[in-house]
Design goal:
Layout (H helix, E strand, L loop, with lengths): L4 E6 L7 H14 L3 E5 L4 H4 L9 E3 L27 E4 L5 E4 L2 H10 L4 E6 L1 H11 L5 E5 L15 H22 L2 E6 L6 H9 L4 E3 L7 H13 L5 E6 L25 H13 L3 E5 L11 H19 L5 E6 L2 E6 H4 L11 H8 L7
Helix pairs in contact: 1-9, 5-6, 7-8
Length: 366
């Protein structure tokens, strides 16, 4: 397949390493003599070009990506409210409704003579890419999410940076928790998977880790804290994934805007209140939230981001489409988008990481 002009889009939540991917794509494409453009804010730059005084797309060349590898965020902008198959559109009464604007998007891409798209994003972005491929577009995906819940790849970029920062936060909280003899409950992002909470919790020597994959019994978590108190340990660190929930209970959610994903949060404060009630020990909640998304990517995330970007360009050069680049150590390979989006990648309960936590005495509340 002939490739002369490609477009790059970043969708969903931001993650450290996005700019590194963009840089690798642009330089690799330019070295092949291809023209490269960026679409602003997911696909919004094409679906609402009138909202951008300087245009919904931006030319990308060597100068535009110089010195951005270490920067967080994305120079193209991003959104989690721009699903082209469920696009938020004002209805007759002025209220937003979901409308399928995928045909509008396909027409806009073809009118700009774009031969292929490299879509950088998580499970939602990859599902959109699959749908657009089925409408005849040529797309290669790049797996991005701090949650590490995208199937088909061992790691997504952004995860390592999020875990490293979360671990540093736990290190700081240990000293203040011990000084005040408190229970510190730390809520972390991750949506419906517990990868960040699990890895950071173990690395940061948490005493209990509550993840979505293991519904918890608050009495068992309280028992762990009481056991520590009896043994002379006057403080405890409890890590809670935002999607964690008690046995027989539901995830805490504030719903979601039209065209956006469900918004999770609040479980940290609930767990802190319940633990204070059951243990009699002062408990405080800390929500790391979007702090996990920001900042400079670690060297690990920079490297896999650059590898993913270059591999995506190679995939297009080789005539690939409807696939996602994926880390399968020690190589980067291509997996079908259908395989990558078939299921969410949850924490395996029999994994060495979970078994390690149990051997170290960490409570999962089960």
């Amino acid at each position: 397949m002939s490739t002369k002009k490609i477009a790059v889009t970043t969708g969903g939540g931001d993650a450290p390493g996005l700019n590194a991917v963009i840089r690798a794509i642009v330089i690799s494409a330019t070295n092949r003599g291809w023209e490269c453009i960026g679409i602003r804010d997911g696909y919004n730059g094409l679906l609402q070009p009138q909202q951008y005084p300087r245009g919904g797309t931006v030319p990308l060349g060597r100068e535009s990506v110089r010195g951005i590898t270490h920067l967080g965020g994305t120079i193209l902008g991003t959104t989690n409210r721009g699903h082209p198959f469920r696009y938020p559109t004002p209805g007759e009464d002025g209220e937003l409704v979901e409308k399928d604007r995928s045909d509008d998007l396909v027409a806009a891409i073809r009118s700009r003579q774009i031969d292929a798209i490299i879509a950088i994003g998580g499970d939602g972005s990859m599902a959109i890419a699959l749908g657009l491929c089925q409408k005849g577009l040529r797309i290669v995906g790049v797996p991005k999410t701090i949650d590490n819940d995208l199937s088909g790849t061992v790691r997504t970029f952004g995860f390592n940076t999020a875990v490293s920062f979360a671990t540093a936060c736990l290190d700081r909280l240990h000293s203040t928790a011990e000084a005040h003899r408190r229970v510190m409950v730390v809520e972390m992002m991750g949506r419906y998977a517990g990868w960040i909470a699990l890895h950071a919790g173990i690395a940061g020597t948490a005493d209990a880790i509550l993840i979505p994959e293991i519904p918890y019994d608050i009495h068992k978590v309280a028992a762990k804290i009481k056991e520590r108190t009896r043994s002379g340990r006057s403080f405890s660190i409890v890590v809670v994934a935002e999607g964690a929930h008690p046995v027989g209970g539901e995830r805490l959610s504030t719903g979601g805007a039209i065209g956006a994903a469900e918004k999770l949060g609040g479980i940290g404060h609930q767990v802190a209140a319940e633990l204070q009630e059951h243990t009699g020990q002062e408990s405080r909640a800390v929500v790391l939230g979007h702090l996990l998304r920001g900042g400079s990517p670690t060297s690990f995330d920079r490297l896999i981001s650059l590898r993913f970007g270059a591999a995506a360009v190679r995939a297009l050069e080789e005539g690939q489409t409807e696939c996602m680049v994926a880390l399968d150590p020690p190589v980067v390979r291509y997996v079908p988008l259908e395989e990558a989006t078939r299921r969410m990648k949850s924490v395996p309960l029999d994994s060495d990481t979970v078994l390690t936590a149990r051997d170290l005495g960490v409570s999962f509340g089960d």
